[in-house]
């Protein structure tokens, strides 16, 4: 419900981006679109069947071989309560004590298909939400003394549930005061801040009141599954549909990104080439207030409706009509737009490329103290649009005033390892695939005489295991890419079996703490083969487990006839690098670390998650060594990079931010004194470089690799790497 971005040193414009990135790591939680239904009723017969199947599969197939017993039951109750009330702002201790009387029974209930306990707990929660939001609305209008040296506990794990209503109300008084201070720190006028909080809290109440049966069952069963490990979860039918959409990068609808704000549905983006774009009438910032099916369907009022339910109404089969009642942003009066739905390609998650041209470094850089920065102000940028089938990139010619020889660096931005599973199963010739798209880009790089490729896997939360193996094979000859161990302890290697490399030149893999799962398979294999350099945050996320999707309908009927009962995404294997090391908890450690605050955020890595599985090793697999990286080379690259960073204003400020984050994480409370609070927030909100970096990653229409100070250092390392490869006479150097 609440995210303490201030603790991580995040300014407000992109806190939501971090939340979205975290969600990407758990793919099953993305793009939720539940069916429009009333708030939860008593569990149905279908709910019971789903619960029984989930319990049976977890008992039989989970990697840990744990059984659904009282230990799991204890964990699950705690996880379910956290999913509803993470900040301990709603339940009383007496509520929790009542639920605890059932803590030994949840496993037995689920095995027998009895999920009524979820409804019982949720009903009490909804009662508390209504009570406490009413209290909060009063506090919003109160006069607050911001000169007091009050504090609020940051971490809800540091306090128990409130024992009395008075104690709970006091928590809300401080919470309201904190939220008002956040608005004032963003220079929102007091009157406007008060109105925003009223709307926000009403929105919280409204969202929970509209929580559906499917959503509640998903919450409860996921509390059970995440008691085994953090990546096992139950997907509701609508969530399964959206998982499929995400993997195949296609959906049927109008092609518009929507946001719910204070009960209004606002158009935030029009997908290029989509139905709304071709129609031309719907614009960014327009407000949609009603939706009707077909040419004569009755309009549904969507004001105050959950955004997921709105999206469900707007989506539909291609070549069908949806009518939208719209309040245009230009205030021209209410309009009705009839738009014919179409199949929309979701290119935001596709691989994108860019070629950067840089002069060869003229100053000898073997002495790090003598090394000039490779990146200076750009005199001119001449964009040339380049299209590789469905992937659009740009070629940027960057000049620094010297007409000397230059290096061409190709950058591929890969947000996920995607694959159209349905298309592949059906034998579709042109099904969407990461490997296919990256192959096309690499082939174009070869034609364009690129000197080095950067694979940008920052914020890539993973995806398809086979795609990570096949994509790695584009850069190596033959050999093992990953090893997989199941519950029986047997280890199976997954090799690249295609001879030859599509790209045989120098390679850099760029990672951060949000690079997870399939990204770690790719980065770990490249590092083990000595095929390229891994740079970025200290390490990747540390997710070293494999999940399999069990569509529950197919457990009882053949695929063609199976009903959509949702799916169980279950951890069934752990993967290991060719060297035998797991990436679990530890991740892939960068050869050259570029200092950035994401390396220091708490709660981001796998090791910070509840019930994460442990790190271990298996026997290494024989594999080639390309000798493109050596210990002496890495040491030189580190020294040169550190010398540049010591003189660069961006990295000097970044180190100060890192120090602040470490200090802030050690402080158990946040001040509610306005003067002190605003002083702390001013430091965060003044961080324009960080804001530009995150906004460029969030804006899918931005350049693939915008020249932020951080990215300038990536290019500087790349130029150093090319120089050292040449000095060492490594065959990869072009």
TrEMBL record:
Entry-linked InterPro entries: ClpP/crotonase-like_dom_sf, PDZ, PDZ_sf, Peptidase_S41A, Tail-specific_protease, Tail_Prtase_C, TSP_N
EC numbers for this chain: 3.4.21.102
Keyword annotations from UniProtKB, A to Z: Hydrolase, Protease, Serine protease
Domain (PDZ) ranges: 244-321
Keyword Hydrolase on entry: yes
Matches recorded under CDD domains: cpPDZ_CPP-like, Peptidase_S41_CPP
Broad EC category: hydrolase
Record-level Gene Ontology MF annotations: serine-type endopeptidase activity
GO cellular component term, pick one: outer membrane-bounded periplasmic space
Pfam families: DUF3340, PDZ, Peptidase_S41, TSP_NTD
Protein's name according to its UniProt entry: Tail-specific protease
Region annotation (Disordered) ranges: 358-384
PANTHER family noted in UniProt: CARBOXYL-TERMINAL-PROCESSING PEPTIDASE 3, CHLOROPLASTIC (PTHR32060:SF22), TAIL-SPECIFIC PROTEASE (PTHR32060)
Gene name, Swiss-Prot/TrEMBL: prc
Record-level GO BP terms: proteolysis; signal transduction
Family in the record: Belongs to the peptidase S41A family.
